[in-house]
Amino acid sequence: MQNVQHPDAKIVAVLHDILEDTETTTDELHALGFQAHIIDAIQALTKTTGENRFQAAQRTAKNAIACEVKLSDLHDNMDLSRLTSVTVKDKRRYQQYVKVKRRLERARSVHLHLIDLNLTTDYPRLQFQSSQQNFQYLLNAMFDLQHSLGGIQIESPQEWWILFEDVSAYFAYCQRKGVTPKQATYFDLILITDLDYFGGIFQAEQDRQLFASMFGVFMQNHFYRLEA
Question: What is the pTM of this model?
Fold first, then answer.
């Protein structure tokens, strides 16, 4: 609880504990006037019957508030110093927590990046999916915001989706393998895709400067931030 920062996350953390420890239901919370996004986050946190730890984490990952609360909870649960003795079962559970924590940290980096972009309400919302698809959405959104042919300027958001398909797969691979993406490979994948699909309309120096800037921001959000 101490590690939860956002006011909504604090509310969700308390209400989630209440639901776990009492007979209170989400329907009752709704009747009490709690907002839908609060209840959605609570439901994303709540493990359902038959779910294992990793299946539950997949649902939690899709909700920004739930991610923050669960990561705080994991921080407490992974503190082995609170135990008088550490058993084999404790060590096994700890390793499971490590995997869940890594998955949720990656998901949270997507949510935080999305918040930083501050997209307008009429921009297509991210449908949280695989790392590759999430990265592809974010790269296209960054491009839309900054390029003169970006979707916001031409009123066709996510128009250049295919431009970032291969490079988003590359980023997802690097994240999965725990290696640092190379800017040269990033450039090659985007510029070759541009030549193949768009006849090389994004090869100018100003385009390359934008792509370089996007690379730096993307690395800061999804690789350097996770290492901090």
Answer: 0.88
| Mean pLDDT, range 68-96, rounded to an integer | 85
Q: How far apart are alpha carbons 147 and 143 in whole angstroms?
A: 6
Query: Which residues make Cβ contacts (< 8 Å) with residue 139, sequence separation at least 6?
Result: 164, 167, 168, 214, 218
Residues 6+ apart with CB under 8 A from 119: 141, 145
Helices and strands in the chain, H and E counts? 11, 0
Q: Cβ neighbours of residue 216 under 8 Å, at least 6 residues apart?
A: none
How many CA atoms within 13 Å lie on the side-chain side of 103?
21
Q: 66: exposed, middle or buried (C-beta count within 10 Å: 0-12, 13-18, 19+)? A: buried
Average pLDDT across the chain, whole number:
91
CA distance 81 to 127: 39
DSSP 157: T
200: left (phi over 0), alpha (psi -120 to 50) or beta: left
Amino acid letter for position 70: K
